[in-house]
Task: structure prediction
Amino acid sequence: MAKYDFVIAVGGAPGQGIDTVGKSMSQICARHGLHVFTYSAYQSLIRGGHTFLTVRISSEPVANHGDEIDLIIALDANSLEKHLENVRPGGAIIYNSDDIKKEKPERDDIQLCPISYKELSGGTDRKKMMLNICTFGVALNMVGGDLSVLEDIITLTFLKRKGQAITDANLAVARAGYNYASENFTPFESQFVKQEPLAFVEGNAAMAMGGAAAGVKFYCAYPMSPSTGVLHWMAQNARDLNIMVRQCEDEISVVNMVIGAAHAGCRAMCATSGGGFALMSEAIGSAAMMEIPIVVINVQRGGPSTGLPTKTEQGDLWQLLGASQGDFPKIIVAPINIMDGFDTIPELFNLVDKFQCPGMVLSDLTLSMGFTTFAPDSINWQPEIDRGELITGLREMDGEYLRYEITDSGISPRAIPGTPGHMHVVATDDHDEDGSLISDEYTNPHKRRDIMEKRQRKMDGIVELLPPPTLEGPEDAEVTLIGWGSTHSVISEATQKLTEDGITTNHIHFKWLYPMDEDAINEVLAKSGHAVVVECNYTGQFARFLRGETGFKADGHIRKYDGEPFMPHHIVDGVRELLIGKTDLYVPYQEIVV
Amino acid sequence: MATKERPIQVAPTAKDFRGKVAPDWCPSCGHSGILTAFRNAFAKQGRGRHEYLTVSGIGCSSNLPGYVPTYGMHTLHGRALAVATGAKLANHEMSVVVTGGDGDGYGIGGNHFIHTMRKNVDLLYVVMNNQIYGLTIGQASPTSLLGMATKSTPFGNVETPLNPIAMAIVAGATFVARGFSAEMKELTELMYQGMQHKGFALIDVFSPCVTFNKDNTYDYFKERVRFLDEDHDTSNKAAALEQAVKWGDEIPIGLFYQDTSRPSLDESEPVLEHGPMAHQPLGVTPEQGAAIIQRMM
Result:
């Protein structure tokens, strides 16, 4: 079977229900058994402005929104005007002709698909939400989709919440759109294939689910785009799954509540974006000092400051590396796609429980607010849960319990408050093995050195357990693309395209960012060709970090910091440009402007 | 040789709540009286040492957890209430008490102070109020009086102090009291009541700083403090506020306000009906997982 790969985009104004369009489109495709990845370019407005949602549909798993748009649904005149040029030659655009006051849109290399919503809906109801449904009917017909799938989803969406009359009205406009298209428009040559139904999930929800599977019993947050989806999922599922979920007064409270809950014995987690993370900084160090395991997710958006609340960036790496004063053990991980976000959370919890330190997850808007599909049985709801050296009851011991006992591994068994016989104080002041402060009256340089070395020894254990990146693609390639986190799929696709075009390319991708195993990573990097670091920020944060940790200096850089994520051709074009040799930095031009 | 925690066979005494480290406070610091009252109140409640979690922020007074052999957390400056809230919600069977100073609680921790009261988290919060920053050797605090000369206000403080008692009554605390560290018997009783109270209990305690605050001394308070009348109606918010705004030659101390009708946060949270969060089985059952996936199809 030939690979099916098709991109539909929907443009409209916020308030036209675009937020639910992505969900519904994903659901329709998933029920056909087709994989999707969605990317929503939107603005920080509740009403007004413009939203452009891209849905890439494929017969195989897909994790980026691709290069070309085959079909655009323009829900308002603005979208038609703005995005007419974004349809690939041979593609099509569906729009509501009632909105077009002036002349017909001009492009003779695509199929223009005007519908009169007034006529198709019988001229009675002008509800904007129903225009979406009507255009879905049109689009579904053109791609060879199954009308009954759309009908099922309409019933599922409306019947319970809005009643029979509204459901029937929506079904009617969907059918009208579907039938109108079959009589008036030419279907696409490449048609939907039917496979086993899939489930679909938003990136933030996947991380929340990963948390639930890992045994998170305490979650709290302060709302902040683009991380709020984690809070929403947790709040929605709190009672079913028996999880304490709280909204706090600020992010300082959030992380400190997480620390309190974690100390009292819960697996505890929170999520925020860069600004909220900045408020959490001091407490990250305190978790390390008190040796309390916590997980903090930072969903990056465009910075600095309030920055671009609804746009993507990979600009917080150095913030996480440098968060909080002093040296302390910590783990930083950047999931490489949505489903990896699910798996990463339990993996990280096992590490932070074992090593009693903070763990930080670097996601970004592209990953966290994107939707993807997955096979329902591919989710591992029972990941390994290893809580490390935890004391929860009376036990035989030699002498008194020392919370910060000096050990070879640096790990000291941790007693949970409430356990008889193990009372101790955990302090943000530096302390002796038994928890007594060594910083005020009793400052003792030898004790300080011992306890500092004890804590830092944990880093040796962590580094051993973090898998170094692998080289994907041919060993001897002309070009090696190096990336981290959410860009895995887009770089991977660029790698394939370049190789197909005769520039052999391979790919090294980093998920576990800190601590870095210098030798193991240098071994992988030694195999690289013309090395190009691809990342979504201005200063090449990862390239500089990699150089600092390993001494490896990349030959070129492709960077994007306009708020929109990479498309594969941005990287392909960049590599071609860099290979000419006149520059070592390529910044792609963003064609689709929202 | 194996040792075990000696189970407390008889009722615990204040002696059981003496830690192995001696306080590093100045001789005759007001905080010493509060520490004694704490030990007395812990003993009077009758719970084992392992059932208490004593949480503090940063400052002279926040060293207190190191001086009592309960579980303790000496957290960041201003963050004790947030940490304590997390701990309480993770294990609501623990008796969680919070200590700190006026700068820690009313200054840098002011936001948490307001919201922890609003949420009525079941904590006893004892603020050791000396109206000065002691550990940083003497700057004005949020409760320093007008005109007070300190290292940061050498020509006299021009900012009006906040009134923690009135603030607590308005913000939603359900037990609001003021004590004086030299009135040991009454302070112990207030602390005991505060621990027994189900909900957020604030006890603001005058705790003279003998080194850096030469204005609000033991003598200053001995001349002024008056116990609230026995007929003061602690269930009447308006009457409590009327007493709370009194300041001058007579300063009322004692229990201003108590509301036993409002449920605490842990009592309001249905997920806690199966017992403490920290003792719950972890993860998602196959059935729960299947139901979640079903909603995503």
Notes: Residues 164-184 of chain A form the longest helix (21 residues).
